[in-house]
Design a protein that fits this description.
Length: about 290
């Protein structure tokens, strides 16, 4: 796997009628607009200026419903939604393509076919459906080097430097990410994580990886089940995942667990050596949270 030498840069932008945070994501060549307060029109326009200034190809942001038309009037498009993202309220996934070519995908027909096939497996997951030779457990700091080796073997490139054990260690230490792993003969052969937002009570299921020789054995489904169990216990409202749009297996996994397909982010991540479209899958754990 190629190592990203510099991940990116967090910046706080303060203007007379808006303040917002942004993440300049160098590896994925995108700007993420985060947590703006004030004038949404100015936030949209300023982020476009920043995107061009930094030479990024795309802006991504998640906003409340009332802000959607204001952003769309300034060149953003709606790519999907996440039910319950804002502590029970729906978040809308918007994008602006500073590089117009970044907004074009010639694989939509094939990706739509994968969604159709995946939705045929809705709610078909049954727990404990794996061979007894596998052990599912939470990862600890002692596992970071082995996890880094796993991700290095599975991915040619990845949106974050998961082949760096120190990076993984910092994730675990932050208490903002939890990992579940599958072991076979005391060796980690599959892993997945949940990226936690303690304030908004949502979590992203991500960093799903299985060694090639252990695929097709239901390991990822079992890891997702164990992550969900932990998150349910901790009263998270909503779970979501951004899944590679051309990967049938991972999309089937989330459909089996009752996630709903709610959109697609075009050329969103640089993974496996190129930009790829990502499908948005959403599962609300607490329907009536208020």
């Amino acid at each position: 796997m190629e190592i990203a030498v510099q991940l990116g840069l967090y910046e706080t932008i303060r203007q007379h009628d808006v303040t917002f945070e942004q993440y300049v994501d160098l590896h994925n060549q995108r700007l993420k607009l985060i947590n703006f307060q004030g004038n949404p029109v100015q936030a949209a326009r300023s982020s476009v200026e920043m995107c061009k200034r930094h030479g990024m190809g795309k802006i991504i942001t998640t906003v409340y419903r009332e802000d959607v038309p204001l952003f769309c009037e300034n060149g953003f498009i709606l790519e999907g939604s996440i039910d319950g993202y804002f502590k029970g309220k729906t978040g809308y996934c918007l994008s602006h393509f500073c590089d117009p070519s970044r907004g074009m995908s010639n694989q939509l027909k094939e990706e739509d076919g994968i969604i159709e096939k995946s939705e045929g497996y809705i709610n078909q997951y049954a727990p404990n459906g794996i061979d007894k030779g596998f052990l599912i457990r939470s990862a600890t700091l002692k596992d970071t080097r082995e996890l880094a080796v796993l991700y290095d073997k599975v991915f040619e490139t990845y949106p974050t430097p998961m082949n760096n054990h120190e990076f993984i260690a910092n994730m675990i230490k932050s208490k903002k990410v939890i990992f579940k792993v599958a072991e076979y003969n005391s060796r980690i052969v599959s892993a997945a994580s949940a990226d936690l937002d303690h304030e908004l009570l949502h979590a992203e299921i991500t960093d799903c990886a299985t060694l090639e020789e252990f695929r097709g054995k239901g390991l990822l489904s079992e890891l997702v089940y164990h992550l969900e169990t932990t998150l349910n216990t901790n009263h998270y409202i909503t779970l979501f995942s951004l899944s590679r749009a051309l990967s049938l297996g991972v999309n089937i996994v989330f459909s089996k667990h009752g996630y709903k397909f709610t959109g697609r982010q075009i050329n969103n991540c640089h993974i496996m050596g190129k930009f790829e479209d990502m499908n948005i899958w959403v599962k609300r754990l607490i329907p009536d949270y208020a």
